[in-house]
Amino acid sequence: MRIRFVGMNRPYRTMMDDRVRLTFDQYHLELPYYYARFGGNDVRIETVDDESVIQTFSSGGSLARRVKGDGRTSVDDVVVHWRAWHEGSYQPHAVNVMHTCDHSYPSEWVRSVQAAFSQGKLHAVMCHPTWHRENTFRELQGVVPLDRLWDGITSGVDTDVFDPEEKDPFQMLWASDPGRGIAGAAELAVDLHRRDRRFRLHVCQPDYSPRVSISHPAIVVHGFVPNGPELWDLFNTSSFFPYTSTFPEPSSRAYRQAQSSGCVVLYPPGMGSPSSIIRDGVDGLVVSSSQMRTAIEELVSDAGAFKAISQAARDYALSESWRVQARRFNERLIPALQEKRR
User: Fold this and answer.
1) Which runs of consecutive H residues, i.e. helices, occur in the chain?
2) In 3-state terms, what secondary structure has residue 21?
3) CA separation for the pair 71, 299 (Å, rounded)
4) Closest by alpha carbon to 189, among 204, 212, 205, 170?
5) What is the C-alpha to C-alpha distance for residues 274 and 131, in angstroms, rounded to an integer?
6) What's the pTM?
């Protein structure tokens, strides 16, 4: 399929640090890269300032950037509208779908999506599973029915690079926006360190957030670590990923990467899709922040129980990898495209 991703309205070069420029599409945008690599699709990312062929793949797929409004005729099978409905990029002969990853929406967003679907322009909305799908249904006031809210095709993980190595039972990792609950994870690390000085919490964060300033022997602040070998090593060698989230999240790239790396993810109940997706005691732990210390101490002292959850987490990541989700994407879109052309 020929797929175009539209809605990248910021200058492309402003969306990335120089250190991640070569891997931005693979490890930050993700969807177009893996739909090309594993789906065998011809994917174009529409930009306002950048044009280049990025990569071709053995699957037959290709990925490139193309400047919007360059005068060339665009003939696409599928148009993916990035995070909002972009009326000016609607292509009547293509299947138009939208990707969303937010947890709430302004009224203008809601009205534009409702109108596009009611007019037969928008075919489906790609969203995250469980809570996010249900919440999006509520936000759109039922105008887009549940069977047109497609999940299971937007939150894969690259299981080739997030792959368990020898685990340090006392190494924990926070690799996310500090505003999502770093204070709880830091308190947990200090509490564990008070009981056993081998415990360490490694803290990484995105390039857009101010550097975390915490001075304590239990906490190792790395600052911004690009998605690359250094970050992969921290994931792959850590044993625990205490995600002390403070608000309902649609999904989390970090918790998926942690599961792929064989970390035991600890996530509070009632905090969005991850709270529902993680199977408590099977491939992670759904426990309150106040219970995380006891849970970690018990697993450190029970290597068999830790290994079982770690392996189940890895198995789950493999079952929901980008390879799997790219296949599902094609399985949904090819019939929709065939139906449109009848």
Assistant:
1) 24, 31-37, 107-118, 131-139, 182-195, 229-237, 253-260, 273-277, 292-300, 303-319, 322-340
2) helix
3) 60
4) 170
5) 8
6) 0.93
What pLDDT, in 10s, does the model give residues 226-254? 889 999 999 999 999 999 999 899 998 99
Residue 161: name the closest of 237, 240, 257 by CA.
257
Task: Decide if 40 contacts 60 (C-beta within 8 A).
Answer: yes
Closest CA to 1 of 339, 338, 257, 310: 338
Identify residue 12 by its one-letter amino acid code: Y
DSSP string, 146-190: GGGEE-SSS----TTTS---S-EEEEEEEES-GGGTHHHHHHHHH
pLDDT number for residue 72:
63
Go through the domains of the chain in sequence order and give each one's CATH number.
Answer: 2-156+322-340 (3.40.50.2000), 168-319 (3.40.50.2000)
Cα-to-chain-centroid distance, residue 71: 33
The answer to whether residues 3 and 89 touch, using CB atoms and an 8 Å cutoff, is no
- Structure-block tokens of residue 263: 């970390």
- Whether the per-residue pLDDT at 209 is higher than 90: the answer is no
- Please answer whether residues 54 and 36 qualify as being in contact, where contact means their C-beta atoms are separated by less than 8 angstroms: no
Neighbours of 233 (CB within 10 A): 13
Nearest CA to 101 out of 46, 58, 153, 37 is that of 153
Q: Is 248 exposed, middle or buried (0-12, 13-18, 19+ CB in 10 A)?
A: middle
Count of alpha carbons within 13 angstroms of residue 90, beta-carbon side: 16
